[in-house]
Amino acid sequence: MARLNLWRWAVLACAGLYFLVPLAASVVFTIDVPGQGITFDAYRQIVTAPGFGSSLLLSLELAVATIAVVLLLMVPATVALRLGAPRLRPVVEVICSLPLVVPPIAFVAGISTVLKWGPEYLSRTPFFQTIMAIQNPSFPFVLVLAYAVMSLPFVYRALDAGLRAIDVRTLVEAARSCGASLPRALMQAVLPNLRGALLNASFLTLALVLGEFTVAQLLGFTPFAVWIYSVGGSQAQLSVAVSVLSLLVTWALLLSLAVFGGRSRTAAKG
Q1: Would you give the end-to-end CA distance of the chain in angstroms?
Q2: This prediction's pTM
Q3: How confident is the model at residue 109 (pLDDT cuts 50, 70, 90)?
Q4: CATH of 38-269 among 3.90.550.10, 3.40.50.300, 1.10.3720.10, 3.30.70.920
Q5: How distant is the alpha carbon of residue 179 from its chain centre?
Q6: Which are the contacts of 109, defined by CB distance < 8 A and separation ≥ 6?
């Protein structure tokens, strides 16, 4: 047992060094300016940097929309799968895992082909306005659709793990026996027990949207990740400072999610 604990601590220490050493080097690069010593000017410039606020706001808006779309799609699907068609679970699992197999370059190439094909063949139909509307630079809904597809594997795994931890059929039957309709039974009996799974799915989707670069860059939009890349070409320290700050914010969200999820489970047991 002592050897096992020692091995665990050794693996944990190696993993910590693997993540913390590059982060520490990035922080040193942003605050140690040759000839000036230690300065935090790079972090002060973040708020006033051109495009910072608009790109971050766009990414947050895309994240909220993507979370709403993917949860509205996957929560009813996974619950219905659990209740009425458990034999289809392997099929749905394979379908939801396909985004992990398709390279992002191939995925965005397909999206670009469809977007170019739409105006050419649908110019005299009502769908032409739809194709143009989803490419609005102020809020490119096409990115929401792309991110929803890319987040399917993570959202499905999180929801499936949450559904495995509860007896959905018993909860629904108990609520129905008390006179509740099926939608009300799902809303008041099933969803409260899926709070942890919903939070996990939402956080994974948020992390994906904030960090995604390839699709947005190739489609010509400028969310937060693309803005960081564009800034890096002229202001290296500012770019690294923004990356460090975004990483710390992501870790803070993960920590708050773990704390909130732990409190929710404790309150439910109480």
Answers
A1: 33
A2: 0.81
A3: confident
A4: 1.10.3720.10
A5: 37
A6: 218
Q: What is the CA radius of gyration of the chain?
A: 23
- Domain coordinates of the chain in residue numbers? 38-269
Amino acid at 94: V
Length of the chain in terms of residues written: 270
Dihedral angle sign, alpha carbons of residues 20, 21, 24, 25: negative
Residue pLDDT, tens place only, 62-87: 999 999 999 999 998 888 888 877 78
